[in-house]
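Throughout our pipeline, every protein is held as a single compact record rather than as scattered files. Nothing more is needed to write down the fold, since each code stands for a local backbone conformation. For reference, a complete record is included directly beneath this paragraph.
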Amino acid sequence: MTYGVGLLLKEGMVLLSDTRTNAGIDHISSYRKMFHFSVPGERVITILTAGSLSTSQATIARLQEAVEDPEASPESSILLAPSLLKVAEIVGATLWSVREGMEKRLHTNGTFGQATMIVAGQRRGGVMRMFLVYPEGNFIEATEDTPFLQIGEHKYGKPILDRIVRPDTSLADGQKAVLLSMDSTLRSNLSVGMPLDMAVIERDACQVARERRIEAGDEDFRAMSEAWSAALREGFRKIGILK
């Protein structure tokens, strides 16, 4: 399992993922789950993955292969697609094709190799868009009413996003929100773990403005976590009981 989150804000997009892969209590590894495809200044696409590592890696590899194909077309390459909607369709179709192929080879019952993805990006002249792609290849889109999407072990980190994140939330506050959302998840679920990958995409820049790997023991992240815990304890102490 893993946890990934993306915010779609007026100023841009903020994305964060962990790197833990758990194949049993005696086999825990770290794999990158955030991937960038871009033509700087023309378009940028970031994909977060959760679920089956083999399915996710095969899907990303096929997407990269399609981008590098000399005969790539707007129907096959996410870097040539005419819209972010078409990008989501290509990612969904590729994800489903990979999973379907695995199920046929292994004669499974439809639950093997499930993976979900967040697809976020912008092309020059277009608007920023963010999609959550399901294992079957269908997808939903972030909106002003719900300006964030989550994949993986999302329940622990959702309350702070519900309370804090709005479309007009700043990129700085958005980074705090996703990091504290991840902190809550790390405290409550051992299947999510460090290091973390965070990326910021500014509106209309069509490139990743900031990318950071946050390692275990990162002093800034630890200080943020401790400050949040202290603020929660103080807020809890000040709240009165029902009369």
